[in-house]
Amino acid sequence: MEVKRVSTGSKPLDTLLEGGIERGVISNFYGESGSGKTNACIQISAEVASSHGNVAYIDTEASFSAERFAQIASEAELENVFVKDVTDFQQQKGAINSLQAMEQDLELVVVDSMVSLYRLKVDGGNASEVNNELSEQLSKLSEIARNQDIPVVITNQVYTSFDDDELELVGSDVPKYWSKCLIQLSESQDSRVAEIAKHRSLEEGQKVGFEITDNGLQRNDSGVF
Ligand code: GTP
Ligand code: MG
Q: Which residue, judged by its Cα, is nearest atom 21 of ligand 1?
């Protein structure tokens, strides 16, 4: 089967991902606050926009900034990025449901973060209902990725499990099930690290080091660990 990848705009990440993120599936960048999830979303969007692809960018934390985008990309590229701000889980559902009706042909869909508004809702009420809703939203995104043959990038917060002290994804099995590629971003003592946590063809546990600079994620090469 032909592997179709879209560059992340970062050589270390592309090396890790053997060319970039995949079309047709959901890729999930997860990690702690400050690990680089939003930077990754902005850089991938800039990369797609630089080849005139349209990007639908659902922003749930008001973290997309035109200033940061301009540092990473050119202003012209911003014209190809359609940012939709949402402030509750219902609006997030509406934004995802309206993607298919967009008049622009999309080359990339981003949801940063998939689970911040979910987390607010699940804390306040009926967990199984909210989990079903999360699953439906992810199912819709997965369908768009497959039908339009484009990559969908989501981000995911984490928490430390009480039982075994392990890092867990907010939403747990639901985003894990729907994301065909899971990439953990973290910081070690001397470098930021991206690691394949789940992938159908790449080796799990593979890692690269990368930096974040004023111009975004490191563009040039660095060693694979
Ligand atoms: P949350 O959304 O809080 O979960 O974090 P995140 O994973 O989205 O992190 P984000 O991508 O926002 O990365 C934040 C990190 O990027 C900061 O800790 C900074 O170190 C780095 N960063 C952001 N802007 C700049 C910049 O202009 N210059 C440099 N050198 N680093 C930056
Ligand atoms: Mg962020």
A: 212
DSSP secondary structure string for all residues of 105-164: PEEEEEEE-SSHHHHHHHHHS-HHHHHHHHHHHHHHHHHHHHHHT--EEEEE-EEE-TTT
Out of 33-42, 141-150, 184-193, least confident range: 184-193
Ligand 1 atom nearest to CA at 39:
11
pLDDT in tens, 197-221: 999 999 999 999 999 999 999 998 8
Question: Whose atoms come closest to the Cα of 36: which ligand?
Answer: 1
Nearest alpha carbon to residue 119 among 131, 111, 105: 131
Give residue 38 CA to ligand 2 midpoint distance, Å.
Answer: 4
Domain-wise residue ranges, the chain:
5-224
Q: Which CATH superfamily is domain 5-224 in?
A: P-loop containing nucleotide triphosphate hydrolases (3.40.50.300)
pLDDT tens digits, 155-175: 999 999 888 888 999 999 999
Instruction: Report the atom number in ligand 1 closest to the C-alpha of 61.
Output: 2
Whether ligand 1 lies within 6 angstroms of the CB of 192 is answered as no
Q: What is the pTM of this model?
A: 0.96
Distance 23 CA to ligand 2 centre (A): 23
Our answer on whether the CB atom of 45 is closer than 6 Å to any ligand 1 atom is no
